[in-house]
Amino acid sequence: MRTCSQSGPGAARTPVLVHAGGLIHARDREEQVRAQAISSGIFSLLISSSHINKRITELAHNIICTERARRHEEICLLIVLKGAVFFGCRLAREISSAGSLPVAMHFISAASYGNQAHSSGRCRIAGNLNALHGKDVIVVEDILDSGRTLYKLKNHLLKKAHAASVTICVLLDKPGGRKARFQNMGRIDYIGFRIPAVFVAGGGLDYFDQFRELPFIVAVHDKALCV
Ligand code: 5GP
Ligand code: MG
What is the predicted pLDDT for the residue at 38? Predict the structure, then answer.
């Protein structure tokens, strides 16, 4: 990650961050603060936006092939808010632009982290799941860490929402964070990237409820977050 100056009016006070995936124009005070957080070394680039987008296209193709082979007539995505919102929407677009199967998008909220680096040990699931009765559901989640959220969500979908089947698609997998008691949730069918045990932000994931919108993923080097 490096900074460079922009040409044209206002160039002196408008830093532009250059990263592997493109340019971020820091247009106002808030964005300048964000830009400084990135350039100050708190963040380091882990996965560029071009890598993320390329991988989502691959995942979409894998999903289409598998769903066709399973003779499913629709691809039913359950996007877990808030972290998977960008990933899920992009995945839905990629599947849809391949044009072979209709895509249904559903949303659910599942929270276990709060504003800390360690999972709270509890997981709150909120959302109307009536529409998923009898469906072959693909859960789209931002990251698999301890496994608690997806373990609980999968059980919830099968036992309470009466989904016909549950398949899991995660953008990131942090195997170093896995807790033994959540190992038996079954296979994770689709994984974007395996990452080391670091706290990450961007690509939908937050750092103190900010930075979700970054199109790339950064590792957060904050000593208060001992992951
Ligand atoms: P798990 O229940 O598997 O421990 O954690 C899953 C949830 O914790 C994810 O959906 C995500 O919201 C949050 N999480 C886990 N690791 C990270 C991380 O490195 N950064 C952020 N921002 N959230 C994380
Ligand atoms: Mg999440």
Answer: 66
Q: Whose alpha carbon is nearest atom 17 of ligand 1?
A: 199
Q: What are phi and psi of 97, to 5 degrees?
A: -75, -20
Closest-CA residue to 117 (of 88, 141, 143, 84) = 143
28 three-state secondary structure: coil
**For residues 77 and 140, is the Cβ–Cβ distance under 8 A?**
yes
Residue in 194, 205, 225 to alter for ligand 1 test, most ligand atoms within 8 A of Cβ? 205
CA of 204 from ligand 2 middle (Å) equals: 9
Q: Give 89-98 pLDDT, tens digit per residue.
A: 999 999 999 8
Q: How far apart are CA 200 and CA 218, in angstroms?
A: 6
Q: Find the range with the poorest average confidence among 35-44, 60-69, 187-196, 201-210.
A: 35-44
Angle (deg, nearest 10), helices 85-98 and 49-69: 60
Cβ atoms of 120 and 114 within 8 Å: the answer is: yes
